[in-house]
Design goal:
The structure holds two protein chains of two kinds. Chain A is of the alpha/beta class. Chain A is built from ten helices and ten strands. Chain A has one domain: 3-Layer(aba) Sandwich (Rossmann fold). In chain A, 36% of the residues lie in helices and 27% in strands. The longest helix of chain A has 18 residues. Chain B has a two-stranded antiparallel ribbon with strand order 1-2. Chain B is globular and about 55 Å long. Chain B has a domain of 194 residues. In chain B, helix 9 crosses helix 10. Helix content of chain B is 73%, strand content 2%. Chain B starts with a helix and ends in an 11-residue tail after the last helix. By secondary structure, chain B is mainly alpha-helical. Classes of the chains: A alpha/beta, B mainly alpha. The interface between A and B is medium-sized, with 25 and 19 residues. The structure holds adenosine-5'-triphosphate and magnesium ion. The site of adenosine-5'-triphosphate (ATP) has 13 residues of chain A, from strand 2 and helix 1.
């Protein structure tokens, strides 16, 4: 279980997050919605340790992570698929997956977990291909697959549908909740694509000016008037 | 025929040394964006290590083994004490490493005194290669350099540590994100480059004038190599070494060494004007 309390932080002196509280259970997908610049990416980066938190606490199954550098959080079980995917373009698909296993190496996770290829069969076919030559959708699958190679307990996904052909968006929408259930992962899904977010999430939160201002079920948000009001579209 | 063969072998000797010195610089300057003006001192330290071992009665080969170890240790200390604090401040790095280079030179002078240090090669004599007669030690030097380069290529491309390094170089933030301790990877890569430069110094010691200031020359040439070849790939490093080493060797026959050096610099500037990313620039990324 990922537990976040009173989390603040941002870019140097400029605060972006203003006291985030969030709790995500194992096997659950939490959708995070909000307008451009609301602080969604910043929040994931602070949780992953890529940006410094100024205050608050982040615990994973009771272990406090707030003072750990990013690579130790990855080893503790936080996997981050950043906006833009962060693929190592000059490496092959297989090498990308292999470095993904580094996060698990101290926990005894050896090698690429077989189910990564079940979720994303294309990665098995393209193992020898240079990752930079994959299509956007294939790169997104690789980024998620690589995250799973670290055998994480938390998966932070930042706009997985960005710049991807519609048929792959649909398959990602199907696979995210499946992975969460089957692997007991706590998933935080940031998404501008509302259809995907509502379809994949168990609960949704709306973030505004670095604070969580609303929570709702996807069914409630499926009502367009409520959604428009909450997101002030 | 003989003249051409000897010139080629002389060029190969120089290319071998430049390659080894340039390798460390390609790692720090080319990949980590650290302008280390003390890199030449790793060469000096390697040469002095061989001298010191020989002066105690030890064999050249033992000295040659010790040279990369000492170079690597000094590199490790330098990275830990100074460079890691300055990764985001290029100008400070230049000034600090320049200062360190002077301190190292002075320390060697204090410890070992003025004047050139004699280092004798492990084998005397020549080898008859049919087309030319050539000093045996120089052939050994070329062989060791080629073997070292091969080992480095295998290390980078075939080992899990090599994969970590390639990952960190491409995207440091994401490398942390997959659980790699990138601080540690940087430190090891830096010390590794210093060790190879130390080996180069040990190899060149019997052929060079071993002085505390000897590193300066290698530093300048290694920068030419990395800039001309294009940072970031071993193929680029090879191209840069062949260009700088080959041109210097050919010119050295026709004109004085300092004029040759100036002409090589001029040629390097022209190459960089025409191909800003080097001869093979961008091959890695
Ligand atoms: N590198 C940066 N340096 C300083 N401020 C930044 C930086 N990146 C983002 N910001 C600011 O932080 C705030 C939150 O940005 P963030 O990227 O977290 O928003 P977001 O919710 O992910 O938006 P989007 O939907 O556009 O991805 C914005 O006001 C933005 O201008
Ligand atoms: Mg964002």
């Amino acid at each position: 279980m990922l537990m976040i309390r009173g989390l603040s932080g941002g870019y140097g002196a400029l605060p972006v997050l203003n006291g985030i509280d969030l709790r995500v259970e194992a096997g659950e997908v939490v959708g995070l919605l909000g307008r451009n610049g609301a602080g969604k990416t910043t929040m994931l980066r602070v949780i992953a340790g890529w940006l410094r938190a100024t205050s608050g606490s982040i615990t994973l199954d009771g272990q406090e992570l707030i003072r750990l550098p990013a690579f130790r959080r990855a080893r503790a079980g936080i996997a981050h698929v950043p906006q833009g995917r962060g693929i190592f373009n000059a490496l092959t698909v297989r090498e990308n997956l292999e470095v993904g296993t580094r996060a698990a190496s101290l926990r005894g996770g050896q090698g690429i977990p077989e189910d990564v290829f079940h979720y994303f069969p294309i990665l098995r076919e393209r193992q020898g291909q240079i990752a930079g030559t994959l299509s956007g959708g294939q790169q997104q699958q690789l980024a998620i697959g690589r995250a799973l190679c670290g055998r994480p307990s938390v998966l932070l996904l930042d706009e997985p549908s960005e710049g991807i052909q519609p048929n792959i968006v649909q398959s990602i929408a199907d696979i995210i909740p499946r992975i969460a259930r089957e692997r007991g992962l706590a998933v935080v899904l940031v998404e501008q694509n509302l259809d995907l977010a509502l379809q994949a999430s168990d609960r949704c939160f709306v973030i505004e000016k670095g604070k969580i201002v609303h929570s709702a079920t996807p069914a409630e948000l499926a009502d367009e008037t409520i959604l428009k009001e909450l997101l002030a579209l | 025929m003989e003249f051409a063969a000897v010139t080629t072998l002389n060029a190969l000797t120089l290319i071998s040394i430049l390659l080894l010195v340039g390798l460390g610089l390609a790692i720090s300057f080319g990949l980590m964006n650290v302008t280390n003006l003390a890199h030449g001192e790793f060469v000096t330290i390697g040469a002095f290590t061989v001298y010191f071992v020989q002066s105690l009665g030890g064999s050249f080969w033992f000295g040659l083994l010790a040279a990369p170890v000492v170079g690597g240790l000094v590199g490790m200390v330098l990275e830990y004490a100074v460079i890691r604090h300055l990764y985001s401040r290029p100008m400070s790095t230049i000034l600090a490493t320049w200062g360190i280079s002077l301190v190292l030179q002075q320390s060697l002078e204090l410890a070992f005194g003025l004047g050139a240090k004699p280092v004798s090669p492990p084998v005397e004599g020549t080898v008859d290669l049919i087309v030319a007669v050539y000093p045996a030690y120089r052939l050994i030097l070329i062989g060791i350099a080629a073997a070292t380069l091969t080992a480095v290529i295998l290390l980078v491309n075939r080992t899990s540590f090599g994969l970590d390094i390639r990952t960190v170089i491409q995207n440091r933030e994401m490398a942390e994100g997959v659980g790699i301790n990138t601080r540690r990877s940087y430190a090891i890569a830096f010390a590794f480059g210093a060790a190879i430069a130390g080996l180069a110094g040990g190899l060149v010691a019997p052929l060079a004038i071993v002085l505390p200031q000897m590193g300066v020359n290698y530093l300048a040439n290694a920068f030419f190599v990395v800039i001309v070849g294009g940072a970031g790939s071993i193929a680029g490093l090879l191209a840069g070494s062949v260009f700088v080493g080959g041109l210097t060797s050919i010119l050295n026959y026709q004109i004085s060494p300092s004029l040759a050096q100036a002409l090589v610099l001029l040629a390097a500037i022209i190459v960089v004007r025409l191909r800003p990313n080097g001869l093979l620039g961008g091959a890695f990324r």
